[in-house]
Amino acid sequence: MTTVALYGKVLRQEHASYLQLMLDKLNDSGYRMIFYKPFWEKIQKLVQAGGEAELFTSHKDLAENADYLFSIGGDGTLLDTITLIRDSGIPVLGINLGRLGFLSSVPKDKIIKAVDDIDKGSYKIEERSLLRLDSDEDLFGDTNYALNELTLHKREAQSMLTIRAYVDGKFMNSYWADGLIVATPTGSTAYSMSCGGPIVTPDSGNLIITPIATHNLTVRPIVIPDSSEVSLIVEGRNHKYNLGLDSRYVGLEKPLELRVKKENFGINLLQLEHEAFFTTIRKKLNWGLDNRN
Prior knowledge:
With 293 residues, this protein is of the alpha+beta class.
């Protein structure tokens, strides 16, 4: 029996009917469902599982116990799934009950069709690369990786950060800025894009280094091969800064060498056959629309 793990963080009441449709469809199609326990505790009064709900709480429960994971929410919810999926290779399908939804590509009114497509095998698996962070301190435990980006950002409004950056041990630049982003191709349409970084295709094999509000206007984002290792050191007067991996953050107050490279495993995103990267950016960014009136 095919097992679908269901992960989410919250469920607005107006979206409960869409989730119920999906649960009914999965039941009717003969799927076994297991729910992330904290998510089930929030939704159990809004939906019916069609029997006693089976629950999971950690990545250990999933490794050999799920064929797919459905992320129910927005892109932030899907980003959080990587700490559960880890290196298991379980494909993740994003059900978009959020807003923009670059990663969570299935809109709520296409949920039934999405399950039908999975039944028919009308989908493809895209492996997306992850970033890995190493340092002399244990900052994120055994989930020291990110799907979108690593971010350094100042904590004090009055002063900028000075960030010294090296690529494969060679000095590249000192950034005087509010912060710095190292993004994957998947993350190129996230925070990096909002800071002027380029959009690159998911299979391009690159890392993108994008400054945040740099003081030197001639310093631009740069694209490097993902075989490179980037080393970052915050120096100067302001040593208080936040370090983020996707939506997870820690605060630091001293210089520390941060080593960033491609992780040795990736995450599998389940894409329906009618969806493609260029289709997504046309829809989400309104490319090609003639807004002249």
